[in-house]
Specification:
Distance between the termini of chain A: 21 Å
CATH architecture of the largest domain in chain B: Orthogonal Bundle
Mean pLDDT of chain B: 86
Shape of chain B: globular
Helix content of chain A: over 70%
Number of domains of chain A: 2
CATH superfamily of the largest domain in chain A: MetI-like
Mean pLDDT of chain A: 87
Oligomer: heterodimer
Structural class of chain A: mainly alpha
Structural class of chain B: mainly alpha
Largest sheet of chain A: none
CATH topology of the largest domain in chain A: MetI-like fold
Low-confidence stretches of chain B: none
């Protein structure tokens, strides 16, 4: 099965490159660049010192946003999930907020935090924190009550209870939430850099759009896609492992 | 409404009142945020004056087209992936990592290919929306219990009845989750792409108002967008729950 999957992934990648090239043949160099040339452009961008401050800035704001979203989402979710009434009241609000176009709120964030890194960080957090929180609430509330009761009959101390019951029972689901939160925080941070930003990956992308610089647009998109897919695959592997161990 | 629903309402109202107090006392200057009551008034004025009718129609039309394509496309894709095991083996890792890539980064490319009109916006929204629909369709079809199908066969029901009275209702809870997500992602996709670059639409008007320091129009529009999204989501959830109750009785 595993080798079959690898084969299919290979076929898919090959098909992707073929259709990419076909698109290039159909639309021409004014609209998009062919695969190999794009890879060359990616290397050029990564090697050019002009781009490093932008990439560094994006990495910095993404890491900060991620840390805040992870911390706030997990702690907040566990706290809310631990109190039943609180979860019943707040969860629908969170679910609703999750489905609202957050870009509509970006001007508000810009007005409050001003132009600069913090607006992007807050926008990234805004995208990532809610799914993490919802997953954590679900994780805490779905712990099998038998585990807790049997732990009580065995007179586990509070610390033991956390270490032996709560953590192992909730970690897999919380981690699934973190994986989703990772992608959404990335979306939020890059999206935040699209507007009113002087530096960063999103700024480069927007700048390239204004200049109609197709080579740079394609190369930047490719960098972002590769980064997103690789980090997601790593997180997915951990995720599967955690869920299997519990089963 | 349930007790928890009332508490929720009280919390939201209290938050709005708190913001109102902060704005009225000048703790939050009007350059940053106008009081919630004035936001509502501005929203009402926008609706009543009809000055942005074209933008609203354009956005809502885009959203509707995107929803139809996301739901139908996602369902058909899910059905195909579910019924062809080879396709499933190929598609599953892809679906899992699809959500990792922010679709909005493809928007510039779509504009270059299709031009600055509604096609790239709808396409982007469909890219956002059809994957969760496909994932939840597969999920729902997976969870149809074999015993249901056996009972159907034992009673010699026709394929038509088997599909509409047994299989679809059994998969319905998951299909509804998919539809809810497809709807909200369609809204997000349309509004976001309009915000980034567009000549028309609610998202475009918000960014236009922001660029012109027109806080009144901006907050009015934001309230309207949040209101439309909330209304669609809540009614969809309410409706799907009622339908589930009827089907699973």
């Amino acid at each position: 099965m595993k080798s079959r999957r690898a084969l299919y992934t290979g076929i898919f990648l090959a098909a992707l490159f073929v259709s990419w090239h076909a698109l290039y043949m159909a639309f021409g160099p004014r609209v998009l660049t062919p695969p190999w040339e794009t890879f060359g452009n990616v290397v050029n961008i990564l090697m050019a010192p002009v781009y490093w401050p932008h990439i560094g800035e994006s990495i910095r704001s993404f890491s900060i946003a991620l840390a805040i979203a992870f911390g706030l989402g997990t702690l907040g979710g566990v706290a809310i999930g631990g109190w039943r009434a609180c979860a019943e009241v707040l969860e629908p609000l969170l679910v609703n907020f999750n489905s609202v176009p957050k870009v509509a709120l970006y001007p508000v964030i810009l007005l409050i935090f001003g132009l600069g890194m913090w607006a992007k960080v807050v926008f990234g957090v805004l995208h990532g924190v809610i799914p993490i929180m919802i997953a954590s609430i679900g994780a805490v509330r779905n712990v099998n009550p038998i585990f807790v009761r049997s732990a009580q009959t065995m007179h586990l101390t509070r610390l033991q209870m956390i270490r032996r019951i709560w953590v192992p029972a909730t970690i897999p689901e919380i981690f699934s939430g973190l994986r989703l939160g990772f992608s959404l925080t990335l979306l939020g941070t890059v999206f935040g850099e699209f507007f009113a930003s002087q530096r960063g990956f999103g700024f480069l992308l927007m700048n390239a759009i204004d200049l109609r610089d197709v080579r740079t647009i394609m190369a930047l998109i490719l960098i972002l896609v590769v980064f997103a897919v690789i980090s997601n695959s790593a997180l997915l592997a951990i995720d599967h492992r955690l869920h299997r161990r519990r089963a | 409404m349930t007790r928890y629903g009332w508490i929720r309402l009280v919390i939201v109202a209290a938050l709005a009142l708190f913001l109102e107090a902060l704005c009225r006392t000048g703790v939050i200057p009007p350059l940053i945020m106008i009081p919630p009551s004035e936001m509502l008034a501005a929203a009402w004025r926008i609706l009543a004056s009809g000055e942005m009718k074209g933008d609203f129609y354009s956005s809502l039309a885009n959203i509707c087209i995107a929803i139809i394509f996301s739901v139908a496309g996602g369902f058909l894709a899910g059905l195909a992936i579910f019924s062809v095991p080879d396709l499933r083996a190929a598609a599953e890792p892809l679906l899992a990592s699809y959500s990792a890539v922010p679709p909005i980064v493809f928007y510039p490319m779509l504009i270059v290919i299709f031009g600055l009109n509604r096609v790239p916006q709808v396409l982007l929204a469909v890219m956002f929306g059809f994957v969760p629909m496909a994932i939840h369709t597969i999920n729902g079809l997976d969870r149809i219990r074999p015993v249901f199908l056996k009972v159907g066969r034992a009673n010699r029901v026709s394929t038509f009845i088997s599909i509409f009275r047994i299989q679809l209702p059994a998969a319905a809870p998951y299909l509804f989750i998919g539809v809810t997500l497809a709807v909200s992602y369609s809204i997000i996709g349309v509004i976001s792409s309009e915000f980034v670059l567009s000549a028309k639409g609610i998202g475009h008007q918000i960014s236009y108002a922001y660029d012109n320091y027109d806080n009144r129009a901006m907050y009015g529009l934001i309230v309207l967008v949040l209101g439309i999204a909330t209304l669609l989501n809540t009614s969809l959830r309410y409706y799907s729950q009622r339908m589930l109750k009827r089907w699973t009785r």
